[in-house]
Amino acid sequence: MKTENLGIRAAMDRRLSFLQAESGRRESIRRLTAEGARSHYSHDGIGGRKMKKKMRFGFAAALVLAILSFSALAAGITGIFSGINWLGEMLPQETPDMPDVTPAPFTEADARTRFDQEQEILNSRPDRELVVIREEKAGSWAPRKQEAGSLEEVRNLTLASSLPFPGELPEGYRFADGRVYLSCRPEGEFVLTDCETHPAGFSVERYSVDASMDFVSGYALRFHGLEEGDFITVDVWMDMPEDASGYFISVNPGQRAEAVRVEGMDNAVAVSTPETCILAMRRALSEPVPYLYFTGNGQNTVEIYGEVRVDVSASRLDASELADIFSAD
Amino acid sequence: MAEDERGAWLEAAMERYEESLLRMCYAYLADRALAEDAVQETFLKAWKGYERFRGEADEKTWLMRIAINTCKSIRRGTWFRHIDRSAMPSQLPEQEASFDERDDTVTCAVMKLRPRLREAVLLHWYQEMSAEETAKVLGVSRSTVYERLNKAQTILKRELEAWYHEN
User: Which residue among A188, A216, B94, B99 is least enclosed by CB atoms within 10 Å?
Assistant: First the structure.
């Protein structure tokens, strides 16, 4: 293979030269390993530390969606090196367990405050508005959404889409909240309506899309059970197509994962613990759905949705009961 | 196991691979802070698994495998779907070595590849690992690596047509 001709390494190294080794990062690693060594290598992982860090980037989804059917997975994402793909094949476990180390602060106090401020802005964004928080070198945004006050309202909003919708819920569960997510048709555009610099130093950009260019490309629902803490979450979204052997869902130690058959779905995988169960499903769209992907760099691109992903999670319900929720679709 | 030995290995590994890992993780995740997270995570996992590593042949292959798996885990997280991926090189600061527009084009083209193609490209062409080593890292056969590289090459040639012929 004449790979040398592409000259990728040299070009990328020049372009990515702003990314360099840092003594601060090394020091942080040293501190964590020192703490890990003192803890006699117990195998509880450093999930707490990692989740704090990841919240920095995930808060938009975590707070805005309110419903993360994969929250159980996300919560234990650190140290995961086992996975299952849509075909039920477990990925090789080649990497070691994590050391148990005390969570280390990942930002300074003022950065934490800024994080909270960004979070608040994203969380309070108006319906249909795209809000982008831009910092010096990165940024985040939350998906455009429209809140719904009832299950029926969510259903009505998704009628024109090809998204599957829950049928009958198990007895005792009641609607808690819901929303739909909006995508922009390829012929639409994101119009910058406002840009301001926050006193904390980040900028807040607000974009609108002509309502006639919107279409519903996903939704999220949360239901509460009769007992405190019981829940069902449903998260449905159009996604770019992936092949069945490549996609995998991370599996933590203590979780059981298996491919299951769910009527109406091309693939389904259940990941469960004694306390919770997550059923991840997908099916191909009958025809590809193009949309305008917001890149944030002023040159938005047309991308294609090729499949629908459905994640359902719950306490107290097993995979077959979760599958039944969509069986009437 | 002597802590000194493990600590010394970690220091040497950070010295040798930190920058390279950081750039690869960035190219995979298109997010600087996530890439920094991934690098830290990679070294922590490597440190913990050092004893196991001592029986393995190739340090770089092992570290790359941890790094790629870490990036995959990050990418698979639900929250990743909504992070800002606009932090592409064109928006990032210019530092150190100079680059030109073509470097930017090449880097962006690689970062836009589908993940499976991208990881093969990053390991084989960017990290200059052999197809066999790349296959080990990705847990696939060598023929699968070649297949992915071929696909990636086709896409990159198309995307970088002008650039490619110049080179």
Answer: B94
